[in-house]
Amino acid sequence: MYNNHNNARSTNDPVPVIIVGSGLAGLSAAYTALQSGATSVYMFERAAKPGGNSIKASSGINGATTGDDAFFADTIRSAGKRLAETASSEAKVQREHLIKILTERSPQAIGFLSDLGVDLSVVTQLGGHSRARTHRGAGKTPPGVAIVSTLLEKLKTEFGKGKFRLLTGCEVTKLLTTTHSDGAVAVTGVEYKTEAAGVEMLRGPVVFATGGFAGDTHGLLSRYRPDLSGLPSTNEPRPGGHDVLTAVGARLVDMDSVQIHPTGFVDPQNPGARLKFLAAEMLRGEGGILLHEGKRFVNELETRERVSEVIMKLPEAKEEGVLKQWDVRLLLDPGAAKAAEGHISFYVWKGLLKKLKVKDLAETTQKTLREYAEVVSGREGKVDGMGRRAFGHWSLGVKEWDDEAEVCVGRITPIVHFTMGGVAINDHAQVLASELGQEQKPIQGLWAAGEITGAIHGDNRLGGSSLLECVVFGRISGERAALAARDGHG
């Protein structure tokens, strides 16, 4: 049975902006839409609570400073062959244009969040970056929680229930459309369902921000990357929303480009769990190192793709049954642990990190730490044989050796973390019904932002750019959808 939500308003009432997904992309779109004059925003979230995967983000959000042209270059390099070997020169131009928007608008993204009251005062360097540009707060609250909770509170207090309506437990199952005389399809609203009311409809321009498909093990992941189905994931096991978009003609790009994050915690109490906590990349950025059988084996600040590749060439662990896992240790000395104190206390509380004294470590590990300390301190002109150039806040042995010093150690393994593929969009965040490199054909009334989109990250996403992507393209989509709603479209 259908219930038309629009029955609650007459045809002369203002058109609302409809946002599907309550992660950072959706929240950024909602706030910007209301800032831009939208009379109301309806946000649909299929889960019981808002926040999506954004609320789990633990390393921070990238923001370039004035004159940081290297951010664009770092992102281009990280995109790898997917960008460099793009078949069409026009498609390559389109990809690079999206990357330029992402990087050039990063200072404004940081400013947007800071103006809302989010603390982003700590800046660190993550893997694949040529300099420090990833922002997080100085307190104990992880950046994802801090950003999402601040935006939610601002939406509720600044605009109130009459303008911002968050509907949890509501799944959008279909996009409503109309077909123009030239055959082009335009989106006019959504069909959604709830347990209480059944199937309902709402008319208005739509921003799709439902995230990726890294947790859709038996659905989109097995369809596009069946080789990864045996890996654990940081994402909840839920279906991707991509098929809803392709049903109205949206084009998908890079769907086989899936990011494996090199460091997911293996819980010693439940090592075979498929859903795992992320060992934040900032743990390595602040000085943490990776060990296999007590020895370093990789530059910990290489790209996620590279570090994962090196780990997965090591022998697999066999004790977890059907899961593909590895036996690698993440170790933070006192300096690195203090710099990441907010994260460390949580991981220790969860039992994912254990505190040990240096004297209680295996002899091979102690030898590795002494050698590494000499590199960090630059004694005797030593350089890092792994190519690491930034050592965060590592302090052990830099001035003097301390056998009583306490280090933090946890087991990690590569995990399915992020999907770079998704719907093709243009610089206005409109969803395209055309292939990259062809004449762009935007689907009227439909925008997308965040992990649901493709073509921005290529082979590999830089740490800190997922939250940035959500803010930059979320704000673009929210502004554009608000203009469409004001003009009565939808």
Automatic annotation (TrEMBL):
Cofactor: FAD
Residue ranges of every copy of the FAD-dependent oxidoreductase 2 FAD-binding domain listed in the record: 17-467
Cofactor, how bound (note): Binds 1 FAD per monomer.
Reactions that this protein is recorded to catalyse: succinate + NAD(+) = fumarate + NADH + H(+)
Molecular function terms, GO-annotated: FMN binding; fumarate reductase (NADH) activity
Pfam families assigned to the protein according to its UniProt record, in alphabetical order: FAD_binding_2
Entry EC number(s): 1.3.1.6
Keyword annotations of the record: FAD, Flavoprotein, Oxidoreductase
Top-level EC class: oxidoreductase
Gene3D superfamilies noted in UniProt: FAD/NAD(P)-binding domain, Succinate dehydrogenase/fumarate reductase flavoprotein, catalytic domain
InterPro entries: FAD-dep_OxRdtase_2_FAD-bd, FAD-oxidoreductase_2, FAD/NAD-bd_sf, Flavocytochrome_c, Succ_DH/fumarate_Rdtase_cat_sf
Residues that span the membrane, as ranges: none
Function: Irreversibly catalyzes the reduction of fumarate to succinate.
Membership in a protein family: Belongs to the FAD-dependent oxidoreductase 2 family. FRD/SDH subfamily.
NCBIfam families tied to this protein: flavo_cyto_c
The protein's name: Fumarate reductase
Lineage: Eukaryota, Fungi, Dikarya, Ascomycota, Pezizomycotina
